Amino acid sequence: MNILWDTDPTALERYRFALGSDTQALPSAALVARALHDNVGIQQVIIGPDVALDEACELAEAARLDRPEMGVILMRRRMDVTALSQALRSGVREVVTSEDHTALVDALRRSRDLTQRLIGHSMGTPAKEGKVVTIFSAKGGVGKTTLATNLATHLAKSGLKTLLIDLDLAFGDVAISLQLVPTQSIFDAVAMSGHLDEAGIAAISTTHEDSGLHVVCAPNDPGDADRIPPGVSVELIKLARQHYDYVVVDTPPSFTEHVLAACDLSDALVLVATLDIPAVKNLRVAIDTLDMLGSPRDARIIVLNRADAKVGLRAEDVESAIKEQISVSIPNSLTVPSSINRGVPIVLDDPRGSVSVAIRQLGDVHIRRRFGEELNGAPQRRGFFRGRS
Ligand SMILES: Nc1ncnc2c1ncn2[C@@H]1O[C@H](COP(=O)(O)OP(=O)(O)OP(=O)(O)O)[C@@H](O)[C@H]1O
Ligand SMILES: [Mg+2]
After folding, report:
1. For residue 383, what pLDDT is reported?
2. Cα(220) to centroid(ligand 2), Å
3. Ligand 1 mean position to 261 CA, how many Å?
4. What is the pLDDT of residue 120?
5. Which CATH number fits domain 2-124: 3.40.630.30, 1.10.357.10, 3.30.1540.10, 3.40.50.2300?
6. Of 239, 181, 230, which is closest to residue 207 (Cα–Cα)?
7. Residue 310, Cβ neighbours under 10 Å: how many?
8. What CATH class has 131-371?
9. Of 22-26, 126-130, 150-154, minimum mean pLDDT range
């Protein structure tokens, strides 16, 4: 995809022939910065003749470091040597005069070729292996979605590139919990099946603005759930872990084929229980099923949610019933439903509260440290143009 950065609203029509249909026109540096931040599929930025040279060079310089495969092409009304050398020094790939559409077509072709070669080169290097964390419980209503949304928000807020996938395909409520209004969902990945790429993930995900978390929501229409083959979620998770630090997966309360595939691909499996006999029984059954499927025991993290509820069952009773140790206990708190009703994750809404402290403990101690992350001085991703708005 191309971006045409031009202050003239009619520019896209004028250059359409040269730039092709997969081009979005944007009038300001801030909007271009935002588009580049949100859409990793942008491969060429073409800068119109009226954009100030310094602004254009600033973008080229930033792109050279953060997105070296992306091409920046600059149009000027007249060529002058000073502008030309300043532009090329900053990393602009090509400079053309705005009236010469043939030169623009040629420059774009050369730049695209170079982009493809650079992408091909980077594909030869080992892909980044992000970690997949699936939240599961065989019983409904135990707090899976609460945990998945808050854990993912916490990871994203910590500067880690994080994708949350709602695999509760029929009744998923991640979007509503985060107050997102998705235009696309995992259902749209079906059409890209077999050739899903990073740009495809960007297209089907929605950004949670307060944290920078990317979310692939469940379909709006529960009827679409059955039309999503399990291979689609497998392809999505496998690809996502190459492009994200963490992929968090929320699940429905049963071992669907999608869930089994996600568990299989997971580096950590968070199993959630509450202090009631059916939940504990279901957790025991889930653990037995996972054992039978050969799922590694050391990948499991047991979380007891609403752990302080006075219901006659104690955490020790749960541990002895499931024969596993509870890693994290999350207290019962009215702040949870009220944060969900406001659509603000509790880790942002009430960061000092005991529920948030427990969720951060899960994220930092039981997940990030497990994968060898050094937590003093959390890794802050450079974040492409993140500072601008
Ligand atoms: N620690 C907590 N304290 C108080 N209420 C909680 C807590 N955790 C979850 N809840 C409440 O429990 C309800 C169910 O939570 P949630 O939707 O996260 O569960 P779930 O396991 O995803 O359910 P489902 O199986 O239906 O998807 C919500 O109303 C939520 O507000
Ligand atoms: Mg749920």
Report:
1. 40
2. 15
3. 24
4. 67
5. 3.40.50.2300
6. 181
7. 7
8. alpha beta
9. 126-130
